[in-house]
Design brief:
- This protein has 4 helices and 9 strands.
- It has 158 residues and is an alpha+beta fold.
- The protein folds into 2 domains: 68 residues, Ubiquitin-like (UB roll) (Roll); 82 residues, 2-Layer Sandwich (Translation Initiation Factor IF3).
- The strands form 2 sheets. Strands 5, 6, 7, 8 and 9 form a 5-stranded mixed sheet that branches. It has a 4-stranded mixed sheet with strand order 2-1-4-3.
- The longest helix is centred in the middle third of the chain and has 18 residues.
- It starts with 8 loop residues before the first strand and ends with a strand.
């Protein structure tokens, strides 16, 4: 803003169009109007406008605040199982996953391998496939199962 602009020439944008002026001349024009010379874009030459500085800052803050309000954070819920899970426990986990997906949460379903169970990753993959089949009516996209250490996991998105 004003004297903080270091360029020798600026492209001044106004109602009449765009013109290239020396920075000193553009600053003098802004002072004559009782306004501020504000840097809009860093290019060659930099783009400036003659505006009320306080009002411009207020508008920027207002836009920033509006953008923050419009942001939607997506929470991820995790459901953990082992390959020795019983059928009733599995159905309970499926019901909770359905509840999470219907509320719009992403669900990460993980199968943990303990001890020598890590040699039977195919059982974990089958368990995840069955789980995903049960909730497939609520899932738009599903990632492939990934093995991270002793955890085999898949991410389900509603």
């Amino acid at each position: 803003m004003n004297e903080a602009i270091q360029a020798k020439e600026v492209r001044l944008v106004s109602e009449s169009g765009q013109q290239v002026f020396p920075t000193v001349q553009a600053l003098d024009m802004a002072i004559e109007m009782g306004l501020d010379l504000i840097l809009i874009s860093e290019s060659d030459p930099p783009v400036c406008k003659i505006l009320d500085g306080g009002k411009y800052k207020f508008e920027l803050q207002k836009k920033e605040k509006q953008n923050k309000q419009n942001q939607k954070t997506i929470e991820t819920k995790e459901i953990r199982m082992t390959i020795t899970i019983d059928e009733n426990d599995l159905q309970t986990k499926i019901k909770s996953a359905i509840a999470f997906l219907s509320k719009g949460f992403h669900v990460k379903v993980s199968v943990r391998f303990r001890g020598r169970e890590i040699t039977h990753t195919n059982i974990g993959e089958e368990l995840l496939a069955n789980f995903c089949q049960e909730v497939s009516h609520l899932v738009n996209s599903k990632s492939n199962p990934t093995l991270q250490g002793r955890m085999l996991s898949v991410l389900l998105k509603p």
